[in-house]
């Protein structure tokens, strides 16, 4: 069993969730059950799957959950882009968030390759 809190990729994804919660507070109220909810749920999925994978008994199980986290990170990347395109996120926030998710995806990809 690994301690997920020791993984830098978990820490970065956890911080991103908190940032996305703050940014999405200003989304239109009609998006509360749409884009706001989807962005929050999928962003939470990234550190959650990392944590769950750490609790599994084998590297193969851990790798599978890291792959799921990577897929969720890709969805976050798109939803951030969509939010920007819809003018729900200002450009400076978009650039910051996009850079964060790209860094997280690179870290997850590296971890996946290490576990092969």
CATH architecture group name: Up-down Bundle
Q: Over all CA atoms, what is the radius of gyration?
A: 14 Å
Proportion in helices: over 70%
The portion of residues forming beta strands comes to under 5%
User: Superfamily at the CATH H level?
Assistant: 23S rRNA-intervening sequence
Sum up the overall morphology in one term: elongated
Distance between the termini: 18 Å
CATH topology: de novo design (two linked rop proteins)
Question: Short summary of the structure?
Answer:
The chain is an all-alpha fold. The chain has four helices and no strands. The chain has a single domain (4-114), classed as de novo design (two linked rop proteins) (Up-down Bundle).
Give descriptors for this structure.
elongated, 116 residues, single chain, de novo design (two linked rop proteins), 76% helix, mainly alpha
């Amino acid at each position: 069993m690994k301690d997920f809190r020791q993984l830098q990729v978990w820490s970065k994804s956890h911080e991103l969730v908190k940032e996305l919660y703050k940014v999405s507070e200003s989304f239109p109220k009609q998006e509360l059950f749409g884009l706001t909810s989807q962005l929050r749920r999928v962003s939470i999925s990234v550190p959650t799957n990392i944590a769950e994978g750490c609790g599994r008994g084998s590297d193969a199980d851990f790798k599978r959950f890291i792959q799921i986290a990577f897929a969720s990170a890709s969805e976050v990347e798109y939803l951030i882009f969509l939010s920007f395109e819809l003018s729900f996120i200002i450009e400076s926030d978009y650039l910051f968030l996009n850079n964060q998710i790209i860094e997280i995806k690179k870290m997850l990809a590296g971890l996946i390759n290490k576990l092969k």
